[in-house]
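User: Please fill in residues for this 218-position structure.
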C-alpha cells in the first residue's frame, strides 16, 4: 500500500500532459474550434519536452533526497533541493529563450498551415510565462515523494488539472472565450506553484519541529 501511495505521484506526473491535453482540447473545441486545437498541439509538442526535462531533474535528485531524508540530514537535503531548483530554473530560462526565438517557425515544424503558424507565434509567449512555475512544482513534487510525503506530492500532482478545469468553466464565458482557455492553463500552473512553495514551507517547519522535539526527549 505504501508503494502505491508514493508511486501515485510520479505516475500522475507522467500522465499529466495527456490529462491537460484532453481538458484544453475539450474546451478549445467549444471556443476556438479546430484551429485552436491545432495551435495548442504545436505548442504542446515543444513545451512538453521542457516539462519532461524538469521531471528528469526531479527524478535525478530523488535518490539523493531520499537518502538524506533517511539519514535525517535535512541540511544536505535542502542543499540538494536548492540545487535542483536552480538547475531547473536554468533549464526553464534556456527552454523559454529557445522556444521564443523559434516561435515564428514552430508551427511549420509540425506541418501546420500559415494561419495556424501565425497563431502559434502569437500564443506561445503566454504559455512560456508558466514554464518557471512548472519547474518549481515539478521539483517540489519530486522532493515530497522522495521523502515519503505522499499526501502533498499527490495533491500537487492533480491539483493543477482540477484548477485548470475550474478556471476554464469560469473565465472563458466571462472574459473572452478562447484566449482565456490559454490563460486558464497558465494561471492554474502559477497557482499550483504557489501552493507547492507553501506546502514545502509547512513540511520543512514540521520536520524541524519533529527534530527539536526528539532532541528534547533525549
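Assistant: Residues filled in for all 218 positions:
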Amino acid at each position: 500500500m505504501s508503494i502505491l501511495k508514493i508511486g501515485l505521484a510520479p505516475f500522475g506526473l507522467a500522465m499529466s500532459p495527456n490529462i491537460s491535453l484532453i481538458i484544453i482540447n475539450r474546451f478549445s473545441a467549444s471556443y476556438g474550434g479546430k484551429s485552436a486545437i491545432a495551435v495548442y498541439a504545436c505548442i504542446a509538442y515543444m513545451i512538453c519536452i521542457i516539462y519532461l526535462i524538469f521531471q528528469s531533474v526531479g527524478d535525478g535528485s530523488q535518490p539523493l533526497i531520499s537518502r538524506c531524508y533517511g539519514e535525517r540530514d535535512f541540511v544536505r537535503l535542502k542543499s540538494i533541493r536548492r540545487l535542483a531548483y536552480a538547475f531547473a530554473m536554468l533549464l526553464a530560462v534556456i527552454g523559454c529563450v529557445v522556444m521564443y526565438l523559434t516561435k515564428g517557425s514552430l508551427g511549420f515544424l509540425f506541418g501546420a498551415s500559415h494561419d495556424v503558424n501565425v497563431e502559434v507565434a502569437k500564443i506561445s509567449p503566454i504559455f512560456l510565462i508558466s514554464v518557471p512555475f512548472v519547474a518549481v512544482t515539478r521539483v517540489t513534487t519530486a522532493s515530497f515523494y522522495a521523502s515519503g510525503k505522499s499526501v502533498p506530492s499527490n495533491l500537487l500532482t492533480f491539483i493543477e488539472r482540477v484548477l485548470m478545469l475550474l478556471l476554464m468553466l469560469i473565465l472563458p464565458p466571462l472574459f473572452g472565450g478562447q484566449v482565456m482557455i490559454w490563460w486558464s492553463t497558465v494561471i492554474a500552473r502559477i497557482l499550483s506553484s504557489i501552493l507547492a512553495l507553501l506546502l514545502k514551507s509547512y513540511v520543512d517547519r514540521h520536520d524541524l519541529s519533529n527534530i527539536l522535539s526528539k532532541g528534547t526527549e533525549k
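For context: The helical segments are 2-31, 33-70, 74-101, 106-109, 114-128, 131-146, 150-175, 178-217.
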